[in-house]
Design a protein that fits this description.
The two termini are 27 Å apart. Strands 1, 2, 10, 11, 12, 13 and 19 form a 7-stranded mixed beta sheet that branches. A 7-stranded mixed beta sheet has the order 8-7-15-16-17-14-18, with helices on both faces. The chain has 3 domains: 160 residues, FAD/NAD(P)-binding domain (3-Layer(bba) Sandwich), CATH 3.50.50; 154 residues, Guanine Nucleotide Dissociation Inhibitor, domain 2 (2-Layer Sandwich); 101 residues, Guanine Nucleotide Dissociation Inhibitor, domain 1. Helix 1 links the parallel strand 1 and strand 2. It has 447 residues and is α/β, with parallel strands linked by helices. Helix content is 30%, strand content 24%. One of its GO terms (biological process) is small GTPase-mediated signal transduction.
């Protein structure tokens, strides 16, 4: 244990495992430790089902009607991967895809006035959608055509818009779009959690909608992917990548102290011994005096014996309830997966509802989503504090990840990873450089 490492990583959440894998590929000597006996930390998939009942302090055992406990792999934090998004790029570049198998999520839906509708994301779907009236469909179609051809470096495609100064609200006004259309464009296509983006320059929003469309174009049914056997497979995949490039893993290891000298991290003490390091990455739970609470998320895992109504009996889907539809400041999300993804017993479905907490009665806040899922056989309710680091970590060389937010995709997680990488390495994260590094070391995975 009395060894010196370039980097020690505490916690095996997805953020920590991806950074551990990347830094190992970049040639750093990495030690990865976790107090838990399993991978994934807060982003783990729980198996067997009995462990989920224990984790949520539910009395008794799962009923026989829920099948074998080992058939279940239930995510604690629900998220999907954007098919053309940052995490898929990282998986492909690092070849972690060799350890994983994905399925396309079958549908993406949006909530309007108590009902759900398929999200129209192509010109032809827009014209066929019952979400909008005839005139609105035409205006929405024009917006989609504008965004499809939009290129910030080609003035001809901008139609007089300055993408770094014109607000997104001004773009909606340009196409005369009503509030319901604005709701689903901003929240179900651009995937914003609030309406703060309306008064920001439109460039980011247009890029987000282009990402949605590019992701949808890859597979057709929806822009989202999901790994068989649950999201817990993702941190394990990156842990294997780290190990291939010399990373050392120690699960079930007590962390007694983060050792500092002159305000800088110099090591981690465990069972009386110190492993020395130059840099440290950890999740907020390992160093609570260097993080601040930035909110709370409620998540409710629901086990059902039926698909969600009005989703064409999809085995998997996402539903977004825009905040304006339920008089809130934040959207409500529903992720549903099923036995088709090897995460539930045959004929069973797992829907997870999540949102930012706004009142003293969080369960009441998600009632519109729970109403869509009835009847529910079993609920598991959690309310988690969200934390963010209080400083950049450049002085102490301790780099702390952010808690996982309520969004149902990994784009915000990837932004956090890239931010930590930049603070650690003093330069932007570059997938091409990572690929070159892997190639120069040689394909050790095949040895």
């Amino acid at each position: 244990m009395d060894e010196e490492y370039d980097l020690i990583v505490l916690g095996t959440g997805l953020t920590e495992c991806i950074l551990s894998g990347i830094m190992s590929v970049m040639g750093k000597k990495v030690l990865h430790m976790d107090r838990n006996t399993y991978y994934g930390a807060e982003s783990a998939s729980i198996t067997p089902l009995e462990d989920l009942f224990t984790r949520f302090n539910l009395p008794g055992s799962p009923p026989e009607s829920m099948g074998k406990g080992r058939d279940w792999n239930v995510d604690l934090i629900p998220k999907f991967l954007m098919a053309n998004g940052q995490l898929v790029s990282m998986l492909l570049t690092t070849q972690v895809t060799r350890y994983l198998e994905f399925k396309v999520i079958e549908g993406s839906f949006v909530y309007k006035k108590g009902s759900i509708y398929k999200v129209p994301s192509t010109e032809s779907e827009a014209l066929a959608s019952s979400l909008m009236g005839m005139f609105e469909k035409r205006r929405f179609r024009k917006l989609l055509m504008y965004i499809s051809s939009f290129d910030e470096n080609d003035p001809k495609t901008l139609e007089g818009i300055d993408p770094k100064r014109t607000t997104m609200q001004a773009i909606y006004d340009k196409f005369s779009l009503g509030q319901d259309v604005i709701d689903f464009v901003g929240h179900a296509l651009a995937l914003y959690r609030t309406d703060d983006y309306l008064n920001e320059p439109c460039l980011d929003t247009i890029k987000k909608i282009q990402l949605y469309k590019e992701s949808l174009d890859r597979y057709g049914k929806s822009p989202y992917l999901y790994p068989l056997y649950g999201l817990g497979e993702l941190p394990q995949g990156f842990a294997r990548l780290s190990a291939i490039y010399g990373g050392t893993y120690m699960l079930n290891t007590p962390i007694e102290e983060i050792v500092m000298e002159n305000g800088k991290v110099v090591g981690v003490k465990s069972e009386g011994k110190i492993a020395r390091c130059k840099q440290l990455i950890c999740d907020p739970s390992y160093i609570m005096d260097k993080v601040t609470k930035v909110g709370q998320v409620i998540r409710v895992i629901c086990i059902m014996s039926h698909p969600i109504k009005k989703t064409s009996d999809a085995n998997s889907c996402q539903i977004i309830i825009p905040q304006n539809q339920v008089n809130r400041k934040h959207d409500i999300y529903v992720c549903m997966i099923s036995h088709a993804h090897n995460v539930a017993a045959q004929g069973k479905y797992v829907a997870i509802v999540s949102t930012m907490v706004e009142t003293s009665n969080p369960e009441n806040e998600i009632k519109p989503a729970l109403d869509l899922l009835e009847p529910v056989e079993q609920k598991f309710v959690s309310i988690s504090d969200l934390y963010a680091p209080v400083d950049m970590g450049t002085e102490s060389q301790i780099f702390i990840s952010r808690s996982y937010d309520a969004t149902t995709h990994f784009e915000t997680t990837c932004d956090d990873i890239k931010g930590i990488y930049k603070r650690m390495m003093g330069k932007d994260f570059d997938l091409a450089e990572l690929q070159r590094q892997q190639s120069s070391i040689g394909d050790l995975a095949d040895q």
